[in-house]
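check these tokens.
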Amino acid sequence: MKFFKALFILFLFPIFISCEEESTLVMEPVVYTNAPCDNCPEITIQYPRILEDTKLGRTVNTGIQEEIIELLTFADSLEVTNLNEAVNSFNLGYSELKEVYPDETVPWEARINAEVSFENRRVLSIRMDSYLFTGGAHGYSATNFLNFDIEKGEKIDTRELFSDLLAFRAYAEDKFREQEKIPTEAPINSTGFMFELDTFYLPENIGLTPKGILLLYNQYEVASYADGQIQLLIPFKEAKKFVTPAMKL
């Protein structure tokens, strides 16, 4: 595998709600790609890395790499503790499958791209888009959000953003029904969705964007593969009454 590191430092411009919220973390883009090969997986990984050796920097950098490692780890025979080992695990997983099905195995593919989706003085949100093909009829695309408390230098559960989670969920359901044209009195699955127990719930992935709070259901989460991702954006002006005072989005 070849490792290409960008020769320049990227000073990411801040995305903020007001001037007093402005904050810029100094980052550099990192790119991993494997060498061209006729009979091996194609792997491309891009993600931002904070340059400052601070608690926040270590937490963000570790959090991003852990997500990538989890996506790429396939071979049970390897102990994976870093990104290089994860890439080797993905390669080995393909090799092991090809040994069993030498004439049927199509080369695997992994494309992972992480970027800052929101930043102010209190919260940093990282969006990670991934596409994995490991055989079968089609690959699988997914988006994961990582949210960090900048002042504490800690990763936060997205639900910690809300002072009243139940109220926010109820509000989100009303907005979801409006967006997807589901009658108020009808079951949430009445138009073809697949919420468990026919009950609306928030997605695993909740991230921040310049326009508001994004609720993102990945493929298969509440709908069929053909429906793709289901997204609902709650503008900040609507969501502010539900978020914790410390976040002040």
